[in-house]
Amino acid sequence: MPGHKRPTLGDATRGRILFGGDYNPEQWPEETWHEDVRLMKAAGVNSVTLGVFSWAKLEPAPGAREFGWLDTLMDLMHTADVGVVLATPTASPPPWMGHLHPDTLPVDRDGRTEWWGGRQHFSHSSATYRRYAAAITEDLAARYGDHPALTMWHINNEYCTYDWSEQAAARFRDWLRERYGDLAALNEAWGTAFWSQGYGDWAEIHTPRHAHYMKNPGQVLDFKRFTSDMLLECYTAERDIVRRATPHLPVTTNFMPLWVGQDAWRWAEEEDVVSVDLYPDPRDPLGAQHGALVQDLTRSQARGPWMLMEQAAGPVNWRGVNHPKPHGLNRLWSLQAVARGADAVCYFQWRQSRQGAEKFHSAMVSHAGEEGRTYQEIKRLGADLARISAEVTGSHSAAEIAILHDWHAWWAGDQEGRLSHEVDHPAVLRAWHRALWEAGLATDFAHPEHDLTGYKLVVVPQLYAVTDTAIDNLLAHVHAGGALVAGFLTGVADADDRVRPGGMDARLRELFGIRTLHEWWPLDADERVETDGFRGTLWSEELEQTGDATVEAAYKGAELDGLPAVLRNGRAWYVSTLPEPDAFRTLLARIAADAGARPVLDGLPPGVEAVRRGELLFLLHHGRDPVTVRLPGAHHDLLTGTTFTDEVTLGRYGVAVLRP
Ligand code: GLA
């Protein structure tokens, strides 16, 4: 809407960290609702998300409306001073919809229909689905837009579906017409001269369904772009409806962390509040780092405070083996999210279900009820959040290092015919983030075409396909005095996934001091390559450097003996393998130090993470044995009310939120 000033998360928090979760009261009798309110109040819950999967309850037959139960709940929440994030229920259409309108059901790549009986069985391209979704959204907005409990809109839930149906194929052709204009341009972009794939009529184009052998990578890449765009259309259609009714209220949809199917940079531009669901495995020794990565990425997409829409208070039930969170871990990981910019700490879900597919998934109130450890820890966390809310909400944090990530580069590189299926894009990204995280360095994420001004170091774990604009941006960053470090398989292809002459863009080769990239030498899963400083994994390269570049590490032994593994050309570094973790941490710490980027706090004991948010210094202890951290001067801990002069001791999973 022209002139519309976009609301922010601050309009919903009003100075309180949002604390609560998905609330599915339709699974419970009404007396439980009153018990819920009592427990919510005791735990300091101030926000619930209602209606995420309530479509069949709200619209039991086509066009029917049953709002009475939701009216009661909205009023109940208002009386209790618990804000409502109201969801549109469009992630799980009622059974009647698929039954009456088979065109609302998605089809998989083998042409099999995805039936109702689970969830997310909607075809993003179905006009019928979109019509029903718009109608229920209109009516929710009209009925509850003025309700005093309403604080925010939550559209759908974890948009994540693909669709290879006939209606998707029709929309795909429209999307391609829009992108390419004519078939000649499409044939050129997809390289259809290969294997007799030239298209002579738009009607011949379908979604990339199951094929005998490797599919055309251009077609697959565009199908991924198309899918992200179609889901985004579903989101913006519903968003625009609620926005018209309540322009003053923020709108969000929850991302899955680092989900492959959505160009989340593009999506974030369409959201007032960026929110994410985060479920690190409590048994994963790198669970905290996985959380930190997702939090850094989400904060960067939000360009400020963001919403942790869902996490688990205990076990999930969708891994092979699902472990509970040991005592204190839920609090630690929640405060880690706040440290990294979250102004909302919420859960799936409020009360653990007794029926349905997720009855063994934890909740804030577990099957053990009020006496259960889970709820007791939730109560403690609620009190902690109340203590820090006023000084935390709305504040920003700055990083000196930006890690570049781009979904299109990921999609393009993730093709069937790549040289190594051991190279997994998110795993490479995690390895780079891990090295920086373990070195105590704060990181933002950025899109390769974003303004990089102000970053001392730009880190490119892997940008297989890269646009000319992005290359200009990287060169400009280095020419302006910034440092850059890039990993293997960067700059290989253009935006159409056409390999750039020489196997890497010529300007990038010049930047890194690479004269010739002779061959890529991928490594098997358990294979290592020796260098004179460390051992490399996953990948190695047969490179020849220019005269200006210095070899910072060279391959040792075997075929690549003596050739550069790490190259440096002034402020630009190139790492042609993935060093083992300890060596990688040392290498990136050195590159960062050279670029003038400092760790958040020097001399931290192992397992302790320091994060700055605004004026506050968060110390997070990821281990179980007490540790003592030396402080740069006296600090006041907002959680305990204690002032520490020069050191603080943190117990098992301990946290301090320190104001200088
Ligand atoms: C996702 C969904 C929730 C629930 C949880 C379980 O985050 O949004 O509805 O299924 O997973 O972990």
Which word captures the global form? Answer: globular
The helix/strand class is alpha/beta
Give the number of DSSP strands.
28
- Biggest sheet layout: 9 strands, parallel
Architecture of the domain at 401-595 in CATH?
3-Layer(aba) Sandwich
CATH topology of the domain at 401-595, by name, is Rossmann fold
Biggest sheet, spatial arrangement of strands? 5-4-3-2-1-9-8-7-6
Q: Low-confidence segments, ≥5 residues, pLDDT <50?
A: none
Number of helices: 18
Radius of gyration: 26 Å
Mean pLDDT: 97
Assembly state here?
A: single chain
Helix content: 25-40%
Fraction of residues in β-strands:
15-25%
Bound compounds, each kind once, are:
alpha-D-galactopyranose
Describe the structure.
The chain has 660 residues and is an alpha/beta fold. Among the domains are: 401-595, Rossmann fold (3-Layer(aba) Sandwich); 608-659, Sandwich (Immunoglobulin-like), CATH 2.60.40. It is 33% helix and 19% strand. The chain is built from 18 helices and 28 strands. A nine-stranded parallel sheet has the order 5-4-3-2-1-9-8-7-6. The protein has a seven-stranded mixed sheet with strand order 11-10-12-13-20-19-18, with helices on both faces. A five-stranded antiparallel sheet has the order 22-23-28-25-26, covered by helices on one side. Strand 8, helix 12 (329-339) and strand 9 (342-347) form a beta-alpha-beta unit. Helix 7 (166-180) crosses helix 8, helix 11 crosses helix 15 and helix 12 runs parallel beside helix 13. The longest helix is centred in the middle third of the chain and has 29 residues, at 217-245. The protein is globular and about 75 Å long. The mean pLDDT is 97. The structure holds alpha-D-galactopyranose. Alpha-D-galactopyranose binds at residues 157-158, 277, 279, 310, 316, 348, 358, 361.
